[in-house]
């Protein structure tokens, strides 16, 4: 799956623009700057496929990447970007919710949490939203390279507790680093399970 082609298909700024649902879809969601675009790049082994940036608010549309005509990866804009205008934040919420509700081809949402940062209300809101929409989501800790093992273990425990509280959450947790490649092979295997033969 990951050895084949991977093409940027489309960037949708409005729901009316979404590409047809010809492939199973996996979306990458999370706060601004959590590392969504970097994770898509690490998974696909392409450094500049999804545009990543140290400036939060980099990804401004739903970006669709076609993996070998077997699976669609969707890099989402981040939420909780403090500097974003209120209208932009509301648009994101509205668009995310509508996308989630109206997208039967969406098989799973990878919900990313920064291992270095506290879990925020926005993250909990996103989980509630996914519960309500009954969309299966998997919690993924990012930037695990930049926390000490004890802090990481603590974080792991905290996030595992969250999976128990959210009915749509997978009962496990992915520990990743797009820098070192930690957890990337494991995540690829999990994604492959959703791909067309
Ligand atoms: P938005 O598109 O703005 O919502 O951000 P994003 O979630 O797509 O984040 P992006 O991938 O652009 O990465 C944000 C910053 O985090 C960049 O400076 C990355 O280099 C950094 N980063 C991403 N992944 C990792 C990681 O695994 N380890 C470390 N140390 N830094 C990372
Ligand atoms: Mg991004």
TrEMBL record:
Domain named EngB-type G: residues: 22-197
Obligatory cofactor(s): Mg(2+)
Keywords: Cell cycle, Cell division, GTP-binding, Magnesium, Metal-binding, Nucleotide-binding, Septation
A Pfam family matched in the record: MMR_HSR1
Function in brief: Necessary for normal cell division and for the maintenance of normal septation.
Family statement drawn from the similarity comment of this UniProt entry: Belongs to the TRAFAC class TrmE-Era-EngA-EngB-Septin-like GTPase superfamily. EngB GTPase family.
Protein name: Probable GTP-binding protein EngB
Organism: Acetobacter farinalis
């Amino acid at each position: 799956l990951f050895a084949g082609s991977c093409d940027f298909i489309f960037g949708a700024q409005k729901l009316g623009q979404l590409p047809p649902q010809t492939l199973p879809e996996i979306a990458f969601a999370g706060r601004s700057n959590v590392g969504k675009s970097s994770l898509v790049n690490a998974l696909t082994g392409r450094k500049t496929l999804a545009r990543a940036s140290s400036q939060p608010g980099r990804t401004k549309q739903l970006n669709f990447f076609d993996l070998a005509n077997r699976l669609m990866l969707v890099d989402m804009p981040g939420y909780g970007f403090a500097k974003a205008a209120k209208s932009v934040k509301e648009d994101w919420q509205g668009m995310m919710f509508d996308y989630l509700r109206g997208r039967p081809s969406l098989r799973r949402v990878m919900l990313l949490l920064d291992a270095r940062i506290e879990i925020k209300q926005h993250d909990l809101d996103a989980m509630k939203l996914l519960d309500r929409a009954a969309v299966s989501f998997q919690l993924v800790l990012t930037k695990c390279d930049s926390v000490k093992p004890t802090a990481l273990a603590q974080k792991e425990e905290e996030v595992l507790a969250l999976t128990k509280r959210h009915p749509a959450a997978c009962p496990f947790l992915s520990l990743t680093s797009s820098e070192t490649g930690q957890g990337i092979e494991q995540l690829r295997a999990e994604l492959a399970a959703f791909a067309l033969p």
